[in-house]
Every structure is written in C-alpha cells, then in structure tokens.
Design goal:
Layout lengths: L1 E3 L2 E3 L1 E2 L1 E4 L15 H14 L3 E5 L5 H13 L4 E7 L2 H10 L6 E8 L2 H8 L3 H16 L5 E6 L6 H14 L3 E6 L6 H14 L7 E6 L6 H10 L4 E4 L13 H10 L6 E2 L7 H12 L20 H9 L19 E3 L5 H10 L7 H17 L3 E2 H16 L3 E9 L7 E8 L2 E8 L3 H13 L4 E9 L8 E9 L2 E9 L2 H17 L13
Parallel strand pairs: 3-12, 4-5, 4-11, 5-6, 6-7, 7-8, 8-9, 9-10, 10-11
Antiparallel strand pairs: 1-2, 13-14, 15-16, 16-17, 18-19, 19-20
The chain binds 3-methyl-2-oxobutanoic acid and zinc ion.
3-methyl-2-oxobutanoic acid binds next to β8.
Length: 522
C-alpha cells in the first residue's frame, strides 16, 4: 500500500497469463495459431497485464503463433519464453517485433538436481548463462523477466546470488517458479519475503511467482507469496498447465478481490469476462471444467441444499461470498433464434470476440447457424462460440471430413453404424457394429482411417440446458507417445462423437516437431 497525497492506494498485482505457453504444455492441449489468437483476444478483453503467447524457439508453428498474437494485441504486453540461449532469445525477439509492448522471459534451472543432472553445469556457469541471456534480451526490449527454474527446490543463498546478478544485467521482473509443485504456503511465502529482504538491489525489480499444482497448492502458494510481497502472479485460465496444472487465474483474481481486507493489492482484471474465457479455453483445448471447480464450474454458484436455497432467497450473502454475475454467469442469455437475421448473428459473434476473415467465412458460419436453429430453438452464446470454433476446425483440418453417418440402434440388437468420410479427397464408406451407437460409429471411422491410435478419454458435456442442448464431446487419442484432444458438438451426441474423433485424427495427421522448453539442453 502506498500514499498519494495522503490517500492510501493499493499496490497493483500484475496478472501474467501463461495459458498459451505453460497451459499448452498439458498433454493434448496444443493449439493452432488461430486458436491462440482467439484466446489472446479474450485475455485482452479480460484485461490481463501480460500474455505469455508461447516459446518461439520450439517450432516454426510456435514462432508464428507468438508473432500473430504480438501483431494483434494492443492492450496487454505480449511475452515470449526463451531458454538462456542466444538462439532462443533472438527467436523470441524476432517473433515479438510487431508487438506494441513486448517482454522476453528467459530462464535457467537453479536447483542442485537440475544443474547437475539436466544442465551438467556448475552454479558459476549457470549464473554466467543467466546474465548473458538477460543482457541479450535487453537488446530487444527493456521489459525482461528472469526465472530460476525449480526455485522451489533451489538453495536460497544461490537464488540471492543469481537474482542480484540478473537485476544488475537488466532484468525487471524476477519470477520464482515452484516448477514441480513441491512448496507449501507458509514456507513459500517466507522464501519470497527472504529474497526481497536479502537481495541488495531487490527494489529495482518486481517479484513474481509461478506455481504448479502437483500437491493442489498452486493457488495457496501464490497467495502466500502475494502476502509476502510478490506483485506478479503467473497463472492460467482453468488452472491449465503442465501435469496437474498451474495456479488458476480466476481463483487468484477472485480471492484477491473478495478478500480485499487481507490483500494490500488489486488487479485490473474485468472479472465479468472470466466465464467467457474459461469456456473458450475449455472448448479449444477439449479440457472440460469439473462441475465443482471454484468460480467457473457449473455448480460454483448452484445452491442445492434446501437450507442454503432458503438462506440465499432471504439474503444472498448468507451463503454467497461472490456474485455469480461478477464473473460472467449471467451472460448465459438467449440471444438468437430461427428468425434472427444475418446482421444480428454477425454482431453477436463479433461481440463474443470472433472476427470473420471474409464474406465467405461469414456466410458459411451463418448457414451453420441456420441449420442449428432448425434443430434447436434457442441459441445461446455458448452455442455460437462452439459453432465458430467448429467452423475453424474444419477449415484448418481438411484431411478427413465427415460426409454422412447413419446409425441403427434397437433394443436387443447390436447397434450398427455406416459412415462416409472424405479422406484426402477420396470418398470412402464403411460399416461397423459396436457396444452402442457411439462405439459403432467410432469403430466404423477407425476401420476406414486405420490410425491405430489408442482412445484414452471420451467425455460428453451439455453446452447449455435442456434435452435439445448441444452435446460437446471430447476425445483424447494417443499414438507413438503423442497425445491429442479432439472436440465436436452437435444436438445429436453420436454425431458430436464422430466429429470429435475425426477432429483428433486430423490433429494426429499434422506433424508436431515442437521442442519442450524445459526438456531441452542449455
Ligand atoms: O514451471 C516452470 O518453471 C516454468 C518456467 C519456464 C518458468 O514454466
Ligand atoms: Zn511452469
């Protein structure tokens, strides 16, 4: 807290979103360039301060995604990750050239186990690399962040030495990652307080934290750090991220806002955009949100028990500490129907953050909308969002296309599916029986495609309410160590399942030579 003309102002808590980088490191969560741009626009509307758009040195695709995000985002800083290597930093600098405000985030591991086993470097060599990397990054931007990877298991004296050196080299944000999710709140908070107090030039940098959720403590550890002086939190929408994920943005933001009595800081987030972002990330990645997830889960504001309902009706504060509408829940309103025109459709889609690249794209989306409106009378924002996402999938993944699907399912009989696909411009038809309509359909598709991929997950969610709601199906496939998620939606869940399966098969078709930032050698 600081005083301006005698009025006490709260510090700013910087929200650094890494959904597009660490979030994308979740197995199966990889996103295309266009999907990343869509999420980045939603994050900008949410008013996150910094968007970590990716790791440009990972692959040409990652480079292009960071570049595309850098070119369109104006109100948030766009950040690129780089190992402490000249070639990574140059790649990040290049990708970020078009950004209005850019940041390079460079890192090197500092825990004894990572330095010895992974990097095979002495602590002195690690400091040298870190300083060199920060200086090189400063040639591209004044906004340079440094992370000592695996800080949660690093020696505090060594952290003080390396952090002091990188501040002198020009780092303006020092991010303390609990890379393997090993820390516990009291201890992690104390580490942050100690670093701020012990590093002589600590006042020249902002302390940040980046916590993983392996013990379910990512949010608690981040908040403990904020209570001890951290002024930037790295987090992701829905807590997406490597392994058990990162700290969830929505939980951090709402904890700081709801408990303003205990936090001396505030964010600039427009919390009403939280739910839209959460749904968009979930749809694009195919990672559903569990119903009891704080803030964005379907049950987060649902009062089931009679005693709770009674209390909420008398006075909502009896059981509610936040208002559902403050995080966007009231946005679930019926917007369009069968008789809505092209203009109404277009303006609502644009309000939801999508753009049509051409008249042809708008026409295609509008005809999909009309088809959906014939099957389903009330079209909600969630339906529109899914419709546009699906149009995007099909435009990008042309290799396998669903042409027709017919399923016979009768009590006492084995269900049978007949499917017609266009595979690489050739039309093929096949049949298969199965345990149920979905099983038969996926088997018929597999018979034609012969992918030999292993189905690791199949899940169905309804997008809105009612039996005419669209079912959103997620399919996870594994092949030769590569994991992809496919997504499909339809008012008929058998068709939604076929679309999801084909979407995953198309993703397996595209080459993926991305390097993992933390597995690479330095
Ligand atoms: O978890 C981690 O250590 C990271 C770094 C690259 C910051 O993601
Ligand atoms: Zn991480």
């Amino acid at each position: 807290m600081f005083s301006l003309n005698g009025v006490f102002m709260k510090d700013k808590l910087i929200i650094f979103d890494t959904t597009l980088r660490d979030g994308e490191q979740s197995p199966g969560a990889s996103m295309t360039r266009d999907e990343k741009v869509r999420i980045a626009r939603a994050l900008e509307r949410l008013r996150v301060d910094i968007i970590e758009a990716g790791f440009p040195a990972a692959s040409p695709g990652d480079f292009e995604s960071v570049q595309a995000v850098a070119n369109v985002i104006k109100d948030s800083t766009v950040c690129g990750l780089a190992r402490a290597l000249d070639k990574d930093i140059d790649r990040a600098g290049e990708a970020l050239k078009g950004a209005k405000q850019s940041r390079i985030h460079t890192f090197i591991a500092t825990s004894p186990i990572h330095m010895q086993m992974k990097l095979q470097m002495t602590p002195e060599q690690v400091i040298e690399h870190a300083v060199r990397a920060v200086k090189r990054a400063r040639q591209y931007t004044d906004d340079v962040e440094f992370s000592p990877e695996d800080a949660g298991r690093s020696d505090e004296d060594f952290l003080c030495r390396i952090l002091e050196a990188v501040i002198n080299a020009g780092a303006r944000t020092l991010n303390i990652p609990d890379t393997v999710g090993y820390s516990v709140p009291q201890q992690f908070g104390a580490t942050i307080a100690n670093l701020i107090q012990r590093i002589p030039n600590a006042d020249k940098a902002i302390f940040s934290v980046h916590c993983h959720n392996d013990l379910g403590l990512a949010v608690a550890n981040s908040l403990a750090a904020v209570m001890n002086g951290a002024r930037q939190v790295e987090c992701t929408i829905n807590g997406l991220g490597e392994r058990a994920g990162n700290a969830s943005l929505e939980e951090i933001v709402m904890a700081v806002r709801t408990r303003h009595d205990v936090f001396d800081c505030q964010t600039r987030i427009d919390t009403r955009e939280i739910l839209t972002c959460s749904k968009l990330v979930s749809s694009i990645t195919g990672f559903p949100v569990q119903p009891n997830k704080a803030i964005v889960g379907a049950n987060a504001f649902a009062h089931e028990a009679g005693i709770h309902q009674d209390g909420v009706l008398k006075s909502r504060e009896t059981y509610e500490i936040m208002r559902a509408e403050d995080v966007g829940w009231s946005a679930n309103r019926m917007v369009l129907g069968k008789h809505s025109g092209r203009n109404a459709f277009k303006s609502r889609v644009i309000e939801l953050g999508f753009e049509f690249a051409s008249e042809a794209e708008l026409n295609d989306a509008f005809s999909r909308f009309k088809q959906l409106a014939d099957k389903k009378h009330e079209i909600f924002d969630e339906d529109l969002q899914m419709l546009i996402l699906e149009a995007g999938f099909e435009a990008e993944d042309e290799y396998i296309k669903l042409i027709a699907l017919k399923v016979c399912s009768e009590t006492g009989e084995i269900p049978n599916a007949k499917v017609t696909l266009r595979i690489n411009n050739q039309e093929l038809t096949g049949n298969a029986g199965g345990g149920g309509a979905v099983d038969a359909s996926l088997k018929a598709i597999e018979k034609l495609v012969m992918s030999n991929a292993v189905l690791e997950l199949y899940s169905v969610n309804n997008i809105t309410n009612g039996t005419d709601s669209q079912g959103e199906v997620t399919v996870r496939l594994e092949k030769a160590g590569r994991i992809v998620n496919g997504l499909g939606a339809d008012t008929d869940i058998v068709i939604a399942s076929a679309k999801a399966y084909i979407n995953a098969l198309n993703k397996l078709q595209s080459p993926d030579q991305r390097q993992h930032p933390q597995k690479g050698d330095v």
